Automatic annotation (TrEMBL):
This is Uncharacterized protein. It comes from the Bacteria.
Amino acid sequence: MSDFRASNGVAVSRDQDGRVRTTFSSIRSDIVPSRAAALAEFFEHDKDESFGRWRAPRPLREFVVYPGSDFDTALVLHEPSGAMTTIARQEVDDAEAEGFSDEAKVARQYFIEADKTRRWQDSVEGELWALRFGVDPEEIVVVRRGDHFAAVDTNEYFTSVGVTAPEITGGRRVWPEVQA
């Protein structure tokens, strides 16, 4: 890897042993290869979350999935080639079967993981949630009222939505705070 200088002035390089070396002014830090790989994956995950996408686990990490406009479609992107494929949930019910494309396998895994993460559907009356819709990274704070979420702030574009609405693509509970 050639030397790289980040926008904050920190120089980053890799030595012959695979250590990542950072230098700022005269202060140098070394990061062993296993930790450098973990940090790279962490920052990749952080970037993926900011883009509202899901990344396939190894060995198919070069694929990312953007949620469709409902929970039943996914846009699968192969990052190295830029090839994109839209896959419907019903197409990949048996994606573990031999002969399915890598894209179909990735889409199937995405649907399995997405189903596990719709925690807002289990919310209770009065809880506050920050929800995302479609691929828009902006969150809207809502309160659970019966079988729907109502906007906390007046918003000319949003007043309420059903708890199981397919337009909801992400969310986190704001109050009461989640206890570790």
